[in-house]
Batch of 3 targets.
Target 1
Amino acid sequence: MDTASGSVIDLARQLAQFDNNSPMSYIRPPVSELPDLAEIEKLIKLLREIVFPGYFDTTVPQDVELTGYLEHKIEEAHQTLEQQIQRGFCFFCFQHQTDCTQCRHSAQKLSRAFIFALPEIRDSLTKDAMAAYTGDPAARHISEAILCYPSLVALTHYRIANKLHLLGAELIPRMISELAHSKTGIDIHPGATIGSHFFIDHGTGVVIGETAIIGDRVRIYQGVTLGAKSFPLDENGNPVKGVPRHPIIGNDVTIYSNATILGRITIGNRATIGGNIWVSSDVAADTIVTQFKGRTGANL
């Protein structure tokens, strides 16, 4: 096929060339080394079936022996996880020209550590589900929260991605988080620290940044942003990575819809942030912040 300005092969040659400033000029791993998004989606499905057995696998007979069923699922998840973690390591290994034998060994060690952390992840998600049930008067049963709420979808992805992030996995945690982002509209960075009994009501448009710290029994509503106000730049004008730049939210805090909380500030225990508020300075414990002023010891 020819175009007005030349053949398709000429166009392909042009697109295959990269200047020195292009990220593609130095990150071009073989396709076989890329993590497989379809396999990661399969992994998340398996892990949901393990964490909440009987909820997401409709083919399970009622009289199935649960231990044997879970053993099979765990083995399958472990195999998939190890392969994808290795590919995540190899993606950057190719860039830095390191030894891929180390990638394989690291993936084996990390995937095993993650699999044996599943009871901890299940415990966290059960508490999140209970927070959704008790925090929403429209929920008639905890099963409704598990099956229907985007909060539980996003938090399942987050709890999995966060554990992998803490264990040192490359690339895979972010891919898992972005899967949840695309499904629910809830954007939680896997590096964020979130305590127990966390509930996101409705959820669409929620953003929780990488270095945010959230305490226990916190409830937030749709459109809430826990973001960065500013960040330092290096001598080349690029953002310095890993600097704490997102808010610290205390225990028992409620943040209503479309509130924007920016910077490394602290929202004290039991504080309430009203809707459509822009907060960029510390808020004391037991304070209620409205559009007009902050008050202590009153109802919103």
Target 2
Amino acid sequence: MLGEMAQRLLRDIFERNELFHDLPHIRKRIVAWGQQAAPVTLDHSATILSEEELLNRLGEPPDAGPLELAKWTIVSAPPLPESYAMQGFGSRLASPVAVELNASAEPNACWIESLDAGWLFLNMGWLAAIGASPEELLKKSALIAKRIARFDPSAARFPAFPRMAEPLAGSGWFACGSAAMAFDPICGDGTAHAVREAILAAAAIRAADRGEDPVALRAHYEARLTAGFERHLIQCRPFYASGGDGPWWRAELHAIERGIEWCRAKLQAHGPFRYRLNGLDLDVI
């Protein structure tokens, strides 16, 4: 699901105003968050599409002419060129489930519900169960379960907690996208953030080519991404502080707090920023 800001960024960068015109749009979200919380309906603006569909819509990149041996590599998927550690803050897993909605499901809506051992997210055709299994969470669901006519159980599970690679850059390379970090789906802005990472990495490469210190540029890139990761954790914190009061919620909230402290320690060691992104280029401050 891509929010309005992510759509705008992709349309601007790729100069494709029509990119999302014919896709289904989410106009409202219905949320029951917290113990015995009553559902609240909020305005929303997002569209639904898969990664494969997005790539197909973007099409092949323009021909850049004869390829030369690259001085720099932007790594968009693991593994990284050097040894690295993936710092993770939480243990929650997600299960994607294909579903069929019934007649009580409002059109152009998505639903979010917190429960004792996790939370559920439902949109048009898909359910995500974070924490316990879909079957366990749906047994206790008051908001989402009654809107599902049928679902296909899936054994697939994947990490849904925030994590970031360390380091994020090295001699001749920058990591971005899934090679750099992963966001919690509760505040998921992963696609837009990956685009911003690529913009910054490309700007750092251009700055290095014009004579700026590559070591300083790599440090700037790492610090900016760490600051973005910290902002994401701060955005996630109130959801895990208010979603429930059981052991699962307390453990995941503690992991988020630990991640915020980790980011702040790294940023404090970095010191003041020396560069500023101006359009698609880095300027010295």
Target 3
Amino acid sequence: MMRSRDLLVVGGGLVGTLWALLLAQQGHRVRVVERRPDLRRASVPGGRSINLALSDRGWRALRLAGLEQRIRSFALPMYGRMIHDRDGQRRFQPYGKPGQAIYSVHRRLLNAELLTALEEQPGVELLFEHRCVDVELDVPAIVVETPEGERRRLDAEVVFGVDGAYSAVRQRMQHLERFNYSQEYLEYGYKELTIPPAATGGWQMEPDALHIWPRRRYMLIALPNPDGSFTCTLFFPFEGSPSFAELRTEADVEHFFAEEFPDARALMPRLAEEFFANPTGTLVTIRCFPWSYDGKVLLLGDAAHAIVPFYGQGMNAGFEDCVLLLGLLRRFGQDWERAFKEFERQRKPSADAIAELALYNFVEMRDRVADPSFLQRKRLEQRLAEEYPERFVPLYTMVTFSHMPYAEALRRGMLQERLLDELMSMPDVEQQWESPTVRQLIARWLQELPPYSEEEFSLPAERVQ
């Protein structure tokens, strides 16, 4: 059993709240410091939400915390992509095997459930509207600014920085010698929009798919909500033509959507109003290292590895941080510094890998999903997966429907892409599938793909609880 400790979690968002809950369930005394008001009791400004796509890695963490059934009550399964052409035609592309789905979850509903579950634990204190303004790494302690504008110092045995991409804890660690840090913004922003429920109630489009309007240099997506609405997000260049800079008037917006997304436009009665009322968000990738300091401070989630949202893995990766870290704390007992070092050593390569994969998937979603050659490539990928299920696993499946480390998924995925490149270069490859040339090529490449076993990478509950 772990010794009970006094802990500080900076950040009351999704990952911070889940991590605080897991710590409290282990008997620790936990204070959570959050700069924003309690979202369950206050009006939170809208317009910056990208609906969450909860997948296997995230479900495992919620299951570990005992929250799976509570969250499933409002999680909507999406079994694939629904691709919308300019002429209104729709094509469905399944994500994986029959029955496999990612789940649309409203960010605020999930965060509220996590906060409520956390409050139910003994030894927990939630401090809302307390902004972290300094961190004393050697103590450790933090200095917060209270709602009254006063400064207060909070001591702890360990401080966890789970305060997002613009982490105050990480900013203090950046002053350390040999601390590596980089941030890279896309030249794209995002705008939240809405498709409301039908007048008679229910959804105006299929609720069991993630809807995508791919348009080469930009795209619109839509994810379902339990009330029958869809949260839509336009990913669009800041500059150039077309771009946010070009759409200056309501007439500009109406004309652009009527030309590029006519079937979506028909379902958006408040399009122009929302377009100008909602802020334009930015998309950043953040990499840093080390994540820990002297066994006293540790970064988790976006504070350590913020990524763009195009693989739907930002929250899932942060939740997986919690599962892996809890397992290491149990493994190393009282030596938390050793656990922290092992965590960052194991996790950093996968954090870098999912950052790369998220950028790659933006190009796929925006440019390739409507391309005939991409569809042929997917057919070949599916045939290989069916014929060699223990060796050839589609990259999306490894990332979304398994617990394989992201770094290993990327490594295997790159090998598989090279095999597909060679197959695609062969004329009439689908008709020549059983020919000796094709079979020999496949056999040669499969030698580099060891048999895959999900059990090898899974962390059953008994190993972390």
